[in-house]
Specification:
Keywords: Coiled coil, Periplasm, Signal, Transport. By secondary structure, the protein is an alpha/beta fold. It has 13 helices and 14 strands.
Length: 382
């Protein structure tokens, strides 16, 4: 299980490709490669109906964000004629063949810095996005970067967030029936009853980050040496952990080998309907947030259709559909109420403004800080 590869039944684009409209010589096209399950098929149909002109829409769902990132790389590093194998370079019809680059691609916010640094994407023309001013400043700041991919309030806009989720606590309610408490925040992970009963993500930023959050610090702390109590708290937490995994952390919870897990909301959401004993909570002191963004690959020409699609995704009624049908959160304010959502999902999809303000994106760290996180995490598990 990976937070970027889950499939949401029939509500998301699950076929190999969704093609709408007949392809004519002079017909406009919109070619989108997106994370599978992150956009409902009916939303694409609504967009097509709302367009004034005849357009061919090609939406190709891809399994994982990593695959999409590698696709961006392949478009920029396609072999030149001189690199082709031997005699092939002299065949007239094999020369000058253009690679079809998508107009828009899904990318996770965590990959944004690398995509900018490697010149895989180009800035958005914000003046073409009518709904940009509606977007909360927290989201605007996330995608405003300099040419090295670092946050810069005066930087260009490199992506358009269309849904988000968070790192959450999920626990087996049956295991807590004899206890007089239920998990509510990060500090509950240190309780004696949970010794050797927790599974954590195998991710230094997530694990060290939740300890930093427990200590009232930021997920994006640059110098860990300045927090003397960090190592002690990490060692205590490690005694509570049965194992670390980013792929198989939920199965032991389902069969009862562990009582509690920390994971990504998009991994957990599909399981809640099948396993009613599981309960999800967003830690009260704040958590890590991830976002899916629309980005423009380098080399794709200027066109208005991609910006019409971004604007469409940011219309409140459409944003609400994306949120409810893909069981995620929206960066646009919607009028979602408790009655719209199944009870097990209400903790996730009804955003608590206080918790959201305390929550953070995992932002780029310096190379030295990244090595510090990785080194500390390796020592912890050893």
């Amino acid at each position: 299980m990976d937070r970027r590869s889950f499939l949401l039944g029939t509500s998301g684009l699950a076929v190999s490709q969704l093609l709408i409209g007949c392809g004519g010589k002079n017909q406009s096209q919109l070619n989108v490669q997106l994370l599978k399950g992150s956009i409902p098929g009916q939303v694409v149909n609504q967009f097509h109906k709302n367009l004034q002109q005849k357009v061919q829409l090609k939406f190709a769902p891809i399994e994982q964000i990593q695959d999409l990132f590698q696709q961006l790389q392949s478009w920029q590093h396609s072999p030149k004629a001189s690199d082709q194998e031997g005699w092939r370079r002299y065949i007239p019809w094999s020369q000058g063949k253009k690679v079809a680059i998508a107009d828009l691609v899904t990318l996770g916010d965590y990959w944004l810095k690398a995509a900018i640094e490697q010149k895989l994407i180009q800035p958005l023309e914000v003046e073409q996005v009518k709904q940009w001013s509606v977007l909360d400043q927290k989201w605007q700041k996330l995608v405003q970067r300099d040419d090295l991919g670092n946050l810069n309030p005066q930087g260009k806009v490199w992506g358009a967030p269309y849904r988000w989720g968070s790192t959450v606590i999920v626990y087996n309610r049956e295991k807590f029936e004899k206890l007089d408490w239920r998990p509510r925040d990060w500090n509950d992970l240190w309780r004696d009853e949970l010794q050797q009963r927790i599974s954590l993500l195998n991710q230094p930023r997530e694990v060290i980050g939740l300890v930093l959050k427990k200590l009232g610090k930021s997920y994006n702390t640059e110098n860990l040496d300045q927090i003397p109590e960090l190592q002690t708290e990490l060692q205590k937490l490690n005694q509570q952990v049965k194992f670390y995994s980013s792929n198989n952390y939920l199965e032991p919870l389902i069969i009862g080998d562990t009582w509690l897990a920390v994971g990504w909301s998009s991994d957990i959401v599909p399981l809640l309907g099948r396993y009613p004993q599981l309960t999800v909570v967003i830690p009260q002191s704040g958590t890590a947030i991830w976002a899916d963004l629309w980005v423009r690959p380098t080399g794709v020409g200027k066109a208005s259709l991609p910006y019409q699609w971004i604007d469409f995704c940011w219309q409140p009624n459409i944003a609400k559909q994306i949120s409810l049908l893909t069981k995620s959160n929206s960066p646009i304010s919607t009028n979602i109420v408790a009655s719209d959502i199944q009870e097990p999902l209400q903790n996730l999809l009804l955003t608590n403004p206080q918790i959201f303000q305390k929550s953070e994106f995992l932002l780029p760290l310096s190379l030295s800080a990244t090595k510090q996180y990785e080194s500390l995490f390796s020592k912890l598990k050893a």
